[in-house]
Write a structure and sequence with these properties.
The protein is α/β, with parallel strands linked by helices. The chain has nine helices and seven strands. It is globular.
Length: about 250
């Protein structure tokens, strides 16, 4: 409800009704909110998909400013940029309309976000970056290291942690979290779901986060299996009827 197509359905016309409903419910129930997401190649509204070059770059910064102004001081962590690296073994940037505006688009997004809400933690978020040996993980690490060295504002890295048979949990995930934290950023498990909902694996992921002082927390990607983006994987902590699985306790 805070993605680009939801919050700016028409260029320059923002709509926060759905996002505010989530935010207000959270506050009323004593919960914190992670903002997701300000700049992403996917779920762009049609008007943004049709833009390119400097026009698109300006639209991106306008969007970040508009959304962050509305939620200024309210949201603790923002996924500023989401999924900017290519999947697989190349370690390359994803070829998106945002990438084609120039390789500095991620840096610009983070600098814009810092100015818009200096109090919010600014995160880069991606998937298939949990296994330390993978090229995509190493590419993301190189970017974060470069940002820290050059003073580009980045406070945290989000690991989506969609674990499944194609991208299984590996015990080196703890090494990944520790190595990123050593760069001087916080880390977070941001979109956790585990194919088959193994209690052992849920416990392992939780212990990995607990073992790293800079791990901000764990967000599960949905409540019941019927809410999941991958219901066929039965990957969450609650069954479709709302009952708790063994993984909930572990």
């Amino acid at each position: 409800e805070m993605k680009i197509d939801a919050t700016e359905p028409q260029r320059g016309q923002f709509n926060f009704a759905a996002g505010d409903r989530v935010y207000n419910w959270a506050v009323q129930n004593g919960k914190q909110v992670r903002g997701h997401t300000l700049a992403w190649h996917s779920q762009q509204p049609g008007w943004m998909q049709s833009l390119s070059g400097s026009t698109l770059r300006q639209a991106m910064t306008n969007h970040i400013n508009g959304v962050m102004a509305h939620y200024k001081g309210k949201i603790g962590q923002w996924d500023v940029v989401n999924e900017a690296f290519e999947d697989g073994t190349s370690g390359a940037r994803r070829n998106s309309n945002l990438q084609r505006t120039g390789n500095d688009w991620i840096e610009v997004a983070f600098r814009t976000a810092r100015a818009a809400d200096p109090a919010a933690k600014l995160c880069y978020n991606d998937y298939n970056v949990e296994n330390w040996t993978w090229a995509k993980t190493q590419a993301m690490y190189a970017m974060v290291r470069d940002f820290k060295q050059r003073g580009v504002p980045i406070d945290c890295v989000g690991f989506q942690s969609h674990f499944n048979s194609d991208s299984p949990y590996n015990s080196n995930f703890r090494t990944t979290l520790q190595t990123f934290a050593a760069l001087g950023v916080d880390v977070a498990v941001t979109e956790l779901d585990i194919q088959g909902a193994s209690g052992t694996t849920y416990a392992n992921v939780t212990n990995d986060c607990l073992a790293v002082p800079r791990c901000l927390g764990i967000t599960v990607w949905g409540v019941r299996d019927t809410d999941s983006w991958r219901p066929e994987h039965s990957p969450l902590l609650f069954n479709g009827d709302g009952s708790k699985k063994a993984a909930y306790s572990s």
